[in-house]
Amino acid sequence: MPDIKRPLVIVTRKLPDVIETRMMELFRARLNLDDQAMDRAALKQAMAEAEVLVPTVTDRIDADILSAAGPNLKLIASFGTGVDHIDLRAAREKRLTVTNTPGVLTDDTADMTMALILAVSRRLVEGERLIRDGEWQGWSPTFMLGHRLKGKRLGIVGMGRIGRALARRARGFGLSIHYHNRRRVREEVEQELEATYWDSLDQMLARTDIVSVNCPRTPATYHLLNARRLKLMKRDAIIVNTSRGEVIDEKAMADLLRQGEIAGAGLDVFENEPAVNPRLLKLPNVVLMPHMGSATIEGRIDMGEKVIINIRAFTDGHVPPDRVIDTEF
Ligand code: 8YV
Description:
- The structure is a single chain.
- The chain has 329 residues and is of the alpha/beta class.
- It has two domains: 3-104 and 296-315, NAD(P)-binding Rossmann-like Domain (Rossmann fold, 3-Layer(aba) Sandwich); 106-288, Rossmann fold.
- The protein has helices spanning 17-26, 40-49, 63-66, 88-93, 106-121, 124-132, 161-172, 187-193, 201-207, 227-232, 250-258, 278-281, 297-315, and strands spanning 8-11, 28-30, 52-54, 75-77, 97-99, 153-157, 176-180, 196-197, 210-213, 238-241, 264-267, 286-288.
- The strands form two sheets. The chain has a seven-stranded parallel sheet with strand order 8-7-6-9-10-11-12, with helices on both faces. A five-stranded parallel sheet has the order 2-1-3-4-5, sandwiched between helices.
- Helix 1 packs parallel to helix 13 (297-315).
- The longest helix has 19 residues, at 297-315.
- It is globular.
- Bound molecules: 2-keto-D-gluconic acid.
- Residues 56-57, 79-82, 105, 293-294 line the site of 2-keto-D-gluconic acid (8YV).
């Protein structure tokens, strides 16, 4: 007979100690202390046993994995905001509730996006590498010239929480804000950000100097930036992505970067993580980060707190605050 108040919670990856300790106090928690990602068999076993599963972006919870759900499994409390790793329709058919952790990684991800914009525009990684390689010959007026941010146009693809947090930061650097979104944002927000809305993504891509991908990965955004659209970008424009790799056709982007049709890229996410298109590795005008957008200790603790709150609310019989409704996606 499952203990409703102290459910068996299976956590698929290592979480911050403070979160794990609290989970041990509140739940019958099964932790993954050595942080080995679960293979499909282990994931199925966890689905069969758990009352609550706490997966992360590295666990592909597809229909086949969901078919292994045991009778006690009621809640998938994902550690992260994006839910593209979970087949929401199949979860709903199994009458499983799914929650995520929105809002608490907004600032960290926006900071990382701004860092990538700066790193690519001002050639930070190239310069750093040169010094470490012992190749710096000293200052020169025409050495390592990048581009000034002030006065440039930033085109944000996806004006949700992270897109807006990026826009606020970017305004501080003197960038003017352009955006494309499924829906136009409220007038007060547009006014605050002095943001220009583009109904046509194609038009925005052709007119902005920096393109930032900040929309979730959904069936509608898969390869939203395909070869045709990437070719619309200005030759001296750069692209940054801190959302999901699948929103951009990575191969097409690598080709265009190599051909000089796009001037540079800052990428925190990739289509087949942890694999990175080998062509990207060879390009000096590309800054690559290993999916670290939300990687702050504060952010990861806040995410864990949200997971705990969602589990507690659910087991107390309430609708958890971060319930994911699949029609939203
Ligand atoms: C998280 C992310 O680290 O929350 C997200 O959607 O992309 C990341 O920043 C990851 O998802 C944790 O599961």
